[in-house]
From TrEMBL:
Active-site residues, Swiss-Prot/TrEMBL: K114 (proton donor)
Family per similarity comment: Belongs to the Glu/Leu/Phe/Val dehydrogenases family.
Binding residues annotated for substrate, in chain numbering: K78, K102, S356
Protein name per Swiss-Prot or TrEMBL: Glutamate dehydrogenase
CDD domains: NAD_bind_1_Glu_DH
GO terms assigned for molecular function: glutamate dehydrogenase (NAD+) activity; nucleotide binding
Amino acid sequence: MTKVSAPTKKVKKDVLASTQEVIHQALSNLGYKEDVYELLKEPMRMLTVRIPIKLDNGDVKVFTGYRSQHNDAVGPTKGGVRFHPEVSENEVKALSIWMSLKCGIVDVPYGGGKGGIICDPRTMSFLELERLSRGYVRAISQLVGPTKDIPAPDVFTNSQIMAWMMDEYSRIREFDSPGFITGKPLVLGGSHGRETATAMGVTICIEEAAKKKQLDLDGTKVIIQGFGNAGGFLAKILHERGANIVGISDAYGALYDEAGLDIEYLLEKRDSFGTVTNLFKQTITNKELLECECDILVPAAISNQITEENASKIKARIVVEAANGPTTLEATEILSKRGILLVPDVLASSGGVTVSYFEWVQNNLGYYWSEEEVAGKLHDKMVKAFNNVIETADRHHVDTRLAAYMVGVRKMAEASRFRGWV
């Protein structure tokens, strides 16, 4: 391996560079040669599309969209489509790599994919969103499909948008294709449990982590940074299971009460984008919330929230990442040295792709499972994945993030090797 001299000053890595760094280390720890890293460090395909959409006022606006397919050695690629003003090519690439890792960790026969459109859906009408959704499918239709690449919901996309996308794909292909996309409404071949799958997966990881730290979830103090789809469902589920939710936040601020918040009231009052703190005068910042007293901290909002600047101030015993990349590599090292159990994002948030896999299987079979069946299968997958990551960390004497990457990358590396790609 060629040695690269260290930079003379610290340069902030972007999300793709940080992901590549951990993958490199994971493959090295597993004994793979450099050519395997060269194959896996970038997506095999990256498509950029331009989507002209007629707005309600009659103007035409051209949107930029992406679809990244990381590696299909194991099977078709799989991953969400996000609508967000800050979508970027590097972010989509990194997220597709994370999807590959998630699929490896929960042992489903997919590689990672991810898509995104640079837009702000909060400023768009219902009809404009439909035109954009259909336009995106038309632009990527040659590269996706039930046996090629299977989209799903992500940030600011939902079951309605998946329904439009499925309908457009079915029109293009001239046959009904429910297995083309997951996260659909139940009446169009969706799966029970898909809407809450990410939050349920995080909850299972929280329960397993609490057992490891000998914490009783009943009465345990939990802070959830983020109150959108994942954070809101998570707060509801944990509250129902007896946890004491002492802090929540949204894009505008945070609420903290060491005696516990009224979660039912907050869920009732939040808007469709997870905003609720604007109804209160006494709020704190997201940064302050992270440093408040609690037993379990769940970053469920955006990336780079726990950094080397504040990692030493985190008071939780367990950090469970429900968001993508909320903890930097430097902060991971600090938390690990302090004895804080970190459940990394590629493990904690893999419930979504797990139930998406269940939905795809049900579409292929034409036979649909009950909510109890889906919940039981998800629990088995997540517990097995959690234990595998913890055992790998203990066996190789590495932190849990590196251990999760080692578990996640192994299947993909082996599939590539057996195919003769490396």
